[in-house]
Amino acid sequence: MCIRSKLSRVSLSGSLCDLCASVVVSVIVLVSTFLVGVEHIRAQSRSSDHYKFEVGGNFSLIKFGEQTAINKVPYCLATCKIITEPFSHSTEVGLGARFGYNLNRHLAVEAEINFFPRDRLYEGGRKLEGLFGVKAGKRFRKFGVFAKGRPGFLRLGKGDFRMRPALCPGDIPEPIGCFDPVAKTSFAFDAGGIVEYYPTKRLVVRFDAGDTILHFGERLAVTSVPALNPGVTIPFKIGLLGAPAETTHNLQGNIGVGFRF
Fold first, then answer.
1. Fewer Cβ atoms within 10 Å of its own Cβ: the N or the C terminal residue of the chain?
2. How many CB atoms lie within 10 A of CB 105?
3. What is the pLDDT of residues 106-136, one digit of tens each?
4. Which CATH number, 2.60.40.770, 3.20.20.150, 2.102.10.10, 2.40.160.20, labels domain 51-260?
5. Distance CA 134, CA 192 (A)
6. Which helix (H) or strand (E) element contains residue 13?
């Protein structure tokens, strides 16, 4: 009788221990699952606030600085100042596209292509601009402020001239009719600032402003040569003269919309 009582107590004690162990294991599993789920939700929340890729389009406007060259002209009493592209519209309007990759919340690499469709002989023809570089700054919940530095190129559809295989008078400046326009590519560097506004987590409204630095190599340029007095502003003759290499500063601004994913 005593043996049975002891055995029943031992059995009951073992069952209680097994039940407690099961409850403890279940609680641990439930707590672990809950914590993992919370961390997963937090990770999703963080990732939804920062997308890696961005594509967009933009409206671009560039105001070209005056290109000048100092050349010796035989009938000038002194060195003449040659103003290149005298009839050009200093401001060009174009459209562009942009692709970017966000390395983190503060740094991104991007590429931008802009096309300026105005096609006039004295203005270098149609222009294609390509810029590739980085933007760095601070992104807040609804807006971001960045600096940018992007080297690239500017290709002018009529940026230089090649003499036609025909007999032309040796005049100064040489008549434009004796030459055919050819394309020419120049180095460009875009330095400036960016302000972004985020209406939603994926949509970006972007404003760019900066100095597009252009380096033009030696070329034949449409010029106006003044009369004997270098101070005369009315051109005496329009034609082509060799222009030396030079660097110009040009104000450029963009307004665009992008989509992050």
1. N
2. 13
3. 999 999 999 999 998 778 899 999 999 999 9
4. 2.40.160.20
5. 11
6. helix 2-48
Residue 122's pLDDT is: 75
Return d(Cα 29, Cα 15) in angstroms, integer.
21
pLDDT at 169: 67
H or E stretch including 156? strand 143-163
18-50 pLDDT per residue, tens: 545 565 555 555 545 555 554 554 444 444 457
User: In a 3-state reduction of DSSP, which class is residue 232?
Assistant: coil
Task: Name the token pair of 51.
Answer: 């997308």
pTM > 0.70: yes or no: yes
Instruction: Return the domain boundaries, the chain.
Output: 1-48, 51-260
